[in-house]
Design a protein that fits this description.
With about 425 residues, the protein is mostly helical. The protein has a single domain, classed as MFS general substrate transporter like domains (Growth Hormone, Chain: A). It is about 85% helix and about 0% strand. The chain contains 13 helices and no strands. Helix 5 packs across helix 6, helix 6 crosses helix 9 and helix 8 packs across helix 12. It is globular.
C-alpha cells in the first residue's frame, strides 16, 4: 500500500473515530503536546506539594488554603496588567517564562535546605496558585484559537493530553523522587513548562496559517486593553459569569472536603515523606488512567449529542451518591473509590465542559474574567470550605455531618451546571 493511500485511510479513521478534520490534525497534535507537557510537569510536583502540606500538619491545611487565596488576590492585578498591555499571543509565553524562573529558585532552595518547613509551606502555596493560573491560561489560549464548533468537537480530545500528562507525571515522580529528590523533580518540571511554551507558539503559527472567518476572528497581535481588574468587574455584571463562579465555588467546596480527608488518611498510614509522595502519585496515576479513556472516546461525543450541560451535571449527581455512601458506610476503601471517581470525572467531563462555556464569549472575558474565576473564585471557595471542614472536624461528635453537607452542595452544584448548559446554548444561538 502506497504512503499517500495509507495516510489518507489513516486520516479517515481519525476523522471518524475522533472527529478531527484533516486540516486540524497539526493543531490537535500541538494542543495534545501543550497539555501533556504542562500536566506532566505539574503532576510530578503535585505529590511533592501534598507531602509538603502534610509535613506542616493536616489540621493546619486550612491555613494553607487561606494563604493560597491571599497570594492569589495579590497575583490577580499583576496578571491583569500583563493581559491588558501585552499582545494576546505573548501573554502565555511571558507568564510561563516568569513562573519557570520561580521553579528554578525553589529547586535551589530544596537542594540546599530539603527539610525547611517554611520553604515547604511556601512551595505548597506557590504551586497551588501556579496550578490554576497555568491551566486556566492554557485553556484561554485554546478558547481563543478554536471556534465554538471546534471547541465542542476537540476540547474533550485535547483534555486527553492533560490526562496523559497527568498519568505520566506521577509515574515519573514516584520513580525518580528516590533518585533525584524533590529538587530534581522541580528542575525537570521546569523543562516541561518551557516545552509547553514551544507548543503554544506552534499552535499560534497554525492558526495564522488557518485563520478563522473574519466575523469571529479577533487579532491576537493587539493587547486586550482595559484595566487590571476588568476580569472581576466583568464577572459582577454578567449573570452568565456569576453562574460559572457559583459552579466553580461548589466544585472547590466538594473537592476540598474530600481532599482534606485524603491528606488525613495518608498522613495516618504513612510516616515517611518519600513514601507519602509515592502514595499520592499512585492515586493520581489511577485517576488519570480512567480520565484519559473517557476523554478520548466519550467526552466529545457526549458534548455533541447531549450538550455541554450533561458534562457539567453528571459528576455532581454521582457525588450525591458518593457522599451518601460515605455517610452510611465510612471507610478507607469506600473513600478511595469516591475520590478516584470524583477526580476522574472532573478531568474527563467537568473540566472540558467548563472550558466550552467560554467559547461563546469575547476575548477579554476568555482571558481576564476566566482567569479571575479560575484562580480567585476557586481559591476563595477552597479557603472558606477548608475552614468549614475544620469546624466540623473540631465538633467531632457527628463525623457524618460533613458528608450530608456534601450531598447538599453536590445537588446545588448539579443544578448550577444544568442552568449553565441551557444558558450557553442560548448564547450560542445568538
Amino acid at each position: 500500500m502506497s504512503e499517500p493511500v495509507l495516510r489518507s485511510r489513516l486520516g479517515v479513521l481519525l476523522g471518524k473515530g475522533l472527529h478531527v478534520r484533516e486540516e486540524e490534525g497539526a493543531a490537535v497534535v500541538g494542543g495534545l503536546v501543550l497539555f501533556f507537557l504542562l500536566f506532566a510537569g505539574y503532576f510530578m510536583l503535585r505529590p511533592v506539594r501534598e507531602t509538603m502540606g502534610v509535613s506542616g500538619g493536616v489540621d493546619n491545611l486550612q491555613w494553607l488554603f487561606t494563604g493560597t487565596f491571599v497570594v492569589t488576590l495579590m497575583t490577580l492585578p499583576l496578571f491583569g496588567w500583563v493581559a491588558s498591555k501585552v499582545e494576546r499571543r505573548r501573554i502565555l509565553p511571558w507568564t510561563y517564562g516568569f513562573l519557570a524562573s520561580n521553579l528554578l529558585l525553589f529547586a535551589a532552595i530544596f537542594a540546599v535546605q530539603p527539610d525547611n518547613l517554611w520553604a515547604a509551606r511556601a512551595f505548597y502555596i506557590w504551586l497551588s496558585v501556579f496550578n490554576l493560573l497555568v491551566i486556566s491560561l492554557a485553556w484561554s489560549v485554546l478558547a481563543d484559537l478554536f471556534s465554538n464548533e471546534q471547541g465542542k468537537r476537540l476540547f474533550g480530545l485535547l483534555a486527553g493530553g492533560a490526562s496523559l500528562g497527568g498519568l505520566v507525571g506521577p509515574i515519573l515522580g514516584t520513580t525518580l523522587v528516590g533518585i533525584i529528590g524533590h529538587s530534581g523533580l522541580v528542575l525537570l518540571s521546569t523543562l516541561f513548562l518551557l516545552g509547553s511554551i514551544g507548543a503554544t507558539l506552534y499552535l499560534q503559527h497554525w492558526r495564522d496559517r488557518h485563520p478563522l472567518p473574519a466575523e469571529v476572528e479577533h487579532p491576537r497581535s493587539r493587547p486586550l486593553g482595559g484595566n487590571p481588574f476588568a476580569g472581576a468587574t466583568a464577572v459582577l455584571y454578567s449573570p452568565y459569569l456569576l453562574g460559572i463562579s457559583l459552579f466553580v465555588v461548589l466544585l472547590a467546596s466538594v473537592s476540598t472536603f474530600l481532599y482534606i480527608e485524603q491528606a488525613r488518611l495518608v498522613a495516618q498510614t504513612f510516616a515517611d515523606r518519600t513514601r507519602q509522595t509515592q502514595v499520592f502519585g499512585l492515586i493520581d496515576a489511577v485517576v488519570q488512567t480512567l480520565a484519559i479513556l473517557t476523554q478520548i472516546f466519550f467526552t466529545g461525543r457526549i458534548a455533541q449529542k447531549l450538550g455541554v450541560g450533561v458534562l457539567l451535571v453528571a459528576v455532581p449527581l454521582v457525588m450525591v451518591a458518593g457522599f451518601l455512601w460515605l455517610a452510611l458506610a465510612p471507610g478507607f476503601a469506600v473513600f478511595v473509590v469516591v475520590m478516584v471517581v470524583r477526580r476522574a470525572g472532573e478531568y474527563a467531563l467537568v473540566r472540558p465542559g467548563r472550558e466550552m462555556l467560554y467559547t461563546v464569549l469575547a476575548p477579554e472575558e476568555k482571558y481576564k474574567a476566566k482567569n479571575f474565576i479560575d484562580t480567585v473564585v476557586y481559591r476563595g471557595g477552597d479557603a472558606v470550605s477548608g475552614w468549614v471542614k475544620r469546624g466540623l472536624d473540631v465538633l467531632g461528635e457527628h463525623p457524618q455531618l460533613a458528608m450530608f453537607i456534601g450531598v447538599a452542595l453536590a445537588l446545588i452544584w448539579a443544578a448550577s451546571g444544568g442552568w449553565l448548559g441551557r444558558r450557553r446554548r442560548r448564547l450560542e444561538d445568538l
